[in-house]
Inverse folding.
């Protein structure tokens, strides 16, 4: 796979059979993720809000129409910010906030890097040298199993920082600051064999989550997570992983980074109003609109839309006895 911030879907199809299909899968509906935006509807009916994103729509004759926000038309960027409150965060801010999480977990600051204030008021960072040291009572295995979630993830800059989403600047592996990037650094430092590395990396991927409304941004996030896996494997072992390993990671990603209205816990715009028709005493029919109770009462537990499901990889399924239990996202709110 070529190095760059824009991952071409046609390249994925050519080099990694069936992987794009996995990345487009919506585990809740067993269909594909859908556009959930009208930004592409001018191209044709297949690009309308509720249409599924199909491989032939984002490759071939249509070209590479899905691209990072920094490559999108400036007018479109402003429109998405206004309509969907789409705001992308500079990498130095993602780093600062991720550092706060790690400072709490490790009990000290500057574990992965040291923040540096520049003359223009922004910040950058200097990556720490040597292997990460763990506090008493905690191990590197504990760190990669620590579960973390990026809400309204967009292109998932808090999870993986392959590039700065505001400038488009590519970030080398050793200087990345995302939640998953840090887990992978720890794995790279503590694991030598390929089998152990793959097992630990799958554990890391199973313990990072994110959700996003818009289908194009969701696919970009999923692609960034997958490419991060391929890049780290090549960084560690000098070659690309086997197709089966890539497909396995893509499958985990399809569960853990999903399409959802974060305020409702359902698929975007899946709540509906129903029309109930009754006959009165005089034989005349009366129509009454019944609104979604969840929307009406702003209660996340009462929506009539399609509630999103995710995989709890550690909890055992009662029927099979094996690890991996499918659960509704909203059911986790009670835990």
């Amino acid at each position: 796979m070529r190095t760059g911030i824009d991952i071409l879907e046609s390249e994925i199809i050519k080099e990694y059979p069936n992987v794009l299909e996995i990345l487009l899968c919506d585990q809740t509906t067993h269909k594909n993720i859908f556009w959930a935006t009208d930004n592409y509807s001018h191209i044709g009916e297949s690009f309308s809000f509720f249409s599924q994103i199909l491989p032939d729509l984002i490759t071939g004759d249509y070209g590479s129409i899905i691209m990072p926000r920094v490559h999108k038309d400036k007018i479109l960027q402003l429109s998405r910010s206004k309509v969907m409150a789409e705001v992308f965060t500079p990498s130095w801010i993602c780093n600062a906030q991720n550092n706060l999480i790690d400072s709490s977990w490790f009990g000290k600051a500057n574990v992965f890097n040291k923040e540096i204030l520049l003359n223009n008021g922004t910040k950058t960072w200097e990556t720490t040298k040597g292997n990460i040291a763990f506090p008493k009572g905690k191990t590197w295995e504990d760190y990669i199993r620590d579960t973390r979630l990026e809400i309204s993830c967009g292109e998932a800059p808090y999870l993986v920082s392959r590039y700065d989403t505001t400038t488009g600047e590519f970030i080398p592996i050793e200087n990345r600051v995302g939640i998953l990037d840090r887990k992978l650094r720890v794995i790279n430092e503590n694991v030598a064999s390929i089998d152990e590395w793959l097992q630990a990396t799958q554990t890391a991927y199973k313990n990072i989550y994110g959700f996003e409304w818009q289908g194009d941004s969701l696919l970009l996030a999923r692609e960034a997570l997958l490419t991060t896996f391929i890049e780290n494997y090549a960084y560690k072992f000098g070659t690309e992983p086997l197709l089966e390993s890539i497909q396995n990671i893509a499958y985990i990603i399809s569960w853990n980074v999903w399409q959802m209205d974060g305020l409702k816990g359902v698929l975007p715009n899946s709540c509906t109003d129903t029309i109930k028709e009754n006959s009165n005493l005089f034989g005349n029919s009366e129509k009454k609109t019944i609104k979604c109770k969840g929307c009406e009462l702003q209660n996340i537990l009462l929506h009539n839309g399609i509630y999103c499901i995710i995989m709890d990889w550690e909890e055992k399924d009662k029927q099979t006895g094996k690890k991996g239990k499918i659960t509704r996202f909203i059911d986790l709110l009670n835990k």
